[in-house]
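Task: encode each sequence below as structure tokens.

Item 1
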Amino acid sequence: MSLESCVDDDGSLLYIVTKDESFKKWLVKRKSDNLLSCSCRMFEMKGVLCSHVIKVLREAMNVKDIPDQYILKRWTKQARAECVQDMHGHEIQANPKLQQTYQYRSLCSIFTRISSRASESEKAYNVAYEHASNLARLVEDILCLEIAGNVLKIGHESQDVNLEVNSIQDSNLMKVKRLKKKESSRG
């Protein structure tokens, strides 16, 4: 890619950028406020600077770093940290996987500490193992109910869990429905 020429156009500079092995030409316009726009319109359409603008920045303007006005907020680390709101102003999780990753890491940290301490004593190990088994069953029950669309009620004072399992008892939910194989009639 090469910078072919520069033309003054009513207070703006027009740079002609060509690709070495082809006859294609792109016009990069430098306005009086030093904003650049290319005829390929990649930045305006996708939010990514094209190689033509970068060529003008590096060779004509002698700029080594991309100016801040060309770095959209969505490409920064700050974009992940901020809350996203829906059209009603309610906060929504921008990426549900981030929440799941956070929850996974915090649980791993807690259970690693518990495992480390509980392994120091036979009695502590047995208590931790029993509670971990109960907790594993409880988590599976909760996830099954969420999948089945039931409501989970947790009593905070008594710490016991009351599950509404009316539809779980329905034998139709307990059976796995499979597609029947169609017999082919090739002859």
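Item 2
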Amino acid sequence: MRFKISEKTYAWLIPALFLTGLGIILNPRPSFDILLAALAILMLGQAILKDNLILLFLLLRPALDLWRDLVLFEYQDFAVNLNAALALVMLLWLLSMLYKYRHSVRSVPPMALFALMSGLMFASAFYSVSKITTLVEAAKFLNIVCIFAVSYLLIKEKKLSKQTLLITLIVSALIPLSLALYQLFTGSGISTFGLRGRIHGSFAHPNVFAFFTLSFLFIQIQYSALAKHVLFVKYKYLDKILYTLLAILLLFTYTRAAWIGLAVFLFVLGIVYNTKLLHRFILGIALSYALFFAINSVLIHYYDYSLREIPLVERLTGRNEDADSLAWRQALVRETLPIIRARPYFGFGYGTFPTVWEENRSLGHLWDDSAEAHNDYLRMALEIGLIGLALYILLLISLIALVFRLFRREARSGKRYQYLCLLAWLISFAVLSFSDNMLHHTPVIWLTASWWGASLARPVSHDEPNFV
């Protein structure tokens, strides 16, 4: 990818940067200084990267979560922080890119379902119990759709290589991973539900960092365990180092859902590609649990010590009211179903689950830590009704079916690894959506959408990353 700035670009870039710098000097509000500085970075990025400006957005977003509490401006009860401003600018840029490549937009799979989902979400603002919330959340979903579509189109049109995208995503992870390591060694993570020291990187919650790390673990499996990239052949211990690092970070988020996601991913790989791997995986889990309970029983009997006194072990093996959220989630579903029946077809408006739930929840949930659904399917049913839920499920099924067809078509070529991992990732995402707010984890879903779009657009054999 060449970086060249034309004289025409210089003609608008230099005056624009000068005015932005002048605004920073004269403006007395620090929040606007940050906004103007970000604007200057984006203008410079547009001048250099042009159609590949999406790389700058993807690069900045994980680190910007550090300033999520920085409010740029407020209007009544509505506030815009730095992340929201970046998302809005990105959405406008992405829409301009879709217009530029409008003749190819129909080739993006499955664009019709994406358009229907987005249209229904925006239309729900007309009857929403919170119109501004619905418009904001619908814009967030549209951003995800546009990231997917633009990534697909840029790869297809050969404006961007998958190698460059992957390197950008890796660099974007350096700050979150570095902060997570610092939190791990200093014990400075956050405490939730009686668990202390949960690492979270640069993000607001450990779950977000867990799914962020899990995404890179999926990509790592694709290039080291399956595709056998030359980098991992040349440096034999690199894959073991990366696996160990990512696994440790994932463990100390204390996010069990992420481990379930990894288990689903490996399970799909085993069923579709390698039954021996599946058998070893199941046998390994069974033996691990058998050994744990046997050793723990001996320790309790002879030394009056239980391994479950270790917080991490208790989190992974404990089944009690404090450690296990299953009962809470079941109660949430039971109490939400009557609310859904009040508006079964079109719901209460996209993004309004917290508002509706807080007004209708029972006394038993009055002091809940969060009013979120922790279940994207439940959320869709309440917010945009059974019609919206059906569309969302159909969208996921369409993507899974498409990738499965591509995998079968390329079953004897090197391209199969790309589609195999994408298939496992999609199914893992669909399962995790039962237990978490996957669409709400913005840094994760931006990474996910860009990688999915890029992976569908071009075979791996033509654009394998080459770091050496």
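Check on item 2: Strands lie at 71-75, 78-81, 190-192, 195-198. The CA atoms of residues 29 and 242 lie 43 Å apart.
End of task.
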